[in-house]
Amino acid sequence: MSAVLDVVRAEVFKTLRKRRVYVLAALYWVLLPALALLVGRLIYVNTRGTFVEEGVPLADLMQALFSPHGLATIALTGPAYASPTPYIIGVALLAALFIGEERGQNMWKTVLVVQPNRSAVLTGKLIVTMGTLLVLMVGAFLSAILFGTIGTSFLPTNLSGDWGGLLGLYLWQWAHLLAPTLLAFLLVFLVRSAVLGIVLVLIAPGLLEGIYSVLNTLFSLQPITRFNAVFQALRLQRVWDELPRYFFTTNLYAPGRSPATSLVNEFISEIDQADMGPFSQLLGSGLTLGHSSLVMAGYTVLFGLLLFWVFRRRDVD
Amino acid sequence: MNAITATELTKRYGSKAAVAGATFGIEQGEIVGFLGPNGAGKTTTLRMLAGLVRPTSGTCRVLGDGVPGPSLREVGTMIEEPSFYPYMTGRSNLRHAARLHGDVPDSRVEEVLEFVRLQDAAEKRVRAYSQGMRQRLALARALLWRPKVLLLDEPTNGLDPAGIAEVRESLRRVAHDGATVLVSSHILAEIEKLVDRILAIEAGRIVFDGPLKDLVARAAEQAVTYTISARDQAALLTALEDLGYVPNARGGGEVEVSVPADDAEFLIERLTTKGVRVLSASKEEDDLEDAYLRLIDPSRRPS
């Protein structure tokens, strides 16, 4: 355990001297809420007193999106919808910093001689990576509150909201980021290149899902052909249909995306989610957070075992 | 007790053996020179001893423990090019290493900086360091936790003569304090001044393991180097080539040639028989470089 603590102290020492972390934090903590606030102000100024207000209760919309609670929600939900998501970008950049940099600077031979306990090195690096992600997310939460509070001076918003629930979702989303962090560490370490590793981290999680979507669109195991009949006979149709419930990205962002479902329900409740096609999946319909967490726990175990096995055995050039 | 023991240590990359069945032992407090041409397997052997590379077969032990094992915490290394986090200062790099290793107070960082005479440059970022400064900083890092075993790969690379002498003196002091040092270097004159014993490796195999004087003596037993002068240098060269030797022409009509020790006493007689009028012939003393080159390069061995 003391070896892990030694690694944690060393990695924190290194992290505080790395400019990339501060840039990432500034983008997440300042740019996102400032832009959201600007958009809120534009919407408010341009739609107040117009016909739009007759259809949509503008004050409610402002409160839901641009109040302190709304901005904090956006800081959680927004990154889960971009493509690639800022979450995975953050994870890839941090993996490149904590695992890729040692390769780039030819430092593995130094690090693993100074601290030969490889499991401790890996565990310490994971702890610091997850700690950095937590600091970034909590910082985004607090920064959104700050910007939202400033927004109350020129928007019809206030500080009310389900703060406990939202903070819980932040922590839940943070916990889900352990699996992609392990995957990113594994990929960056395996390909021995931080740049290629980052690209793979951005592409790999969605790759299988993309292939599935293409196959599903093209064939969908329907109609029953000679080829598809085999799958039908093996009762694989149901498995095929159920696959998306176990996809990595669908479940990874479930906590972050869940407030969006509530927002959609609040403002366009008359739309049946079943009619929303692919959007229903994006909104996380049909997936409970418990289910998503179990799936992510499975991915965590899988990637974790692979990573530790590879890291402990691999020769260092 | 041996501080380092390698038994049938082998590392293969595909079908090529980088190290093939290396067996040796190094006692506590010994300074051993590790010699071999580029690609002979020196760095791979050092990497296996440091736990960075897993042997394909065979074992190595450091301070009684198998590698990898807890004793690696007592090992300091400089393997190949020294590497650092370039955006950190020299002092920060050492503090990072001190934290990573644990049990190393910041005061020790200042001690080793002073030891390698880098106090004045300690607050410079490492990217601004010269090769020599990086080399000294790497040595400081290797000494940070007072290791009982030092594995050093070309530690004097990039150092000026004064720096080389300083490193040599530092290593002597470290060994005097009881540390075991295994050091590879291409600068044989430095090795000669520093070590008591030589391990020579060629094509992955240990080809010599013993005291420095034995290597030189063995070389002298194998061959004798003469500097010969004759009235006609061209005739002398031709005659030596006819006798199957590889002579080197020098200035002043002199020729240097290595001949098998058994042939030495008949050399002048044979040259005379071939009509060469020898003016003088003097026997050269072999140094480590001659002995080493003869050991690793068969073409330098007299036929």
Structure description:
The complex is a heterodimer of chains A (317) and B (303). In chain A, 77% of the residues lie in helices and 0% in strands. Chain A contains 17 helices and no strands. Chain A is an all-alpha fold. The mean pLDDT of chain A is 82. Chain A has helices at residues 2-15, 19-47, 52-55, 58-66, 68-77, 86-104, 108-114, 118-151, 163-176, 178-191, 194-218, 226-233, 236-242, 248-252, 254-267, 278-282, 289-313. Chain A has one domain (2-313). Chain B has 303 residues and is α/β, with parallel strands linked by helices. Chain B folds into 2 domains: 2-203, Rossmann fold, CATH 3.40.50.300; 217-300, 2-Layer Sandwich (Alpha-Beta Plaits). In chain B, 34% of the residues lie in helices and 29% in strands. Chain B has 10 helices and 14 strands. Chain B has helices at 42-49, 90-101, 106-115, 131-143, 161-176, 188-194, 212-222, 233-242, 267-273, 288-296, and strands at 2-13, 16-27, 31-35, 57-62, 65-66, 75-78, 149-153, 180-184, 197-202, 205-211, 223-230, 248-249, 254-260, 278-284. A 6-stranded mixed beta sheet of chain B has the order 6-7-8-3-9-10, sandwiched between helices. Chain B has a 4-stranded antiparallel beta sheet with strand order 2-1-4-5, with helices on one face. A 4-stranded antiparallel beta sheet of chain B has the order 12-13-11-14. In chain B, strand 12 (248-249) and strand 13 (254-260) form a beta hairpin. The two termini of chain B are 41 Å apart. The model of chain B has no long low-confidence stretch (mean pLDDT 86).
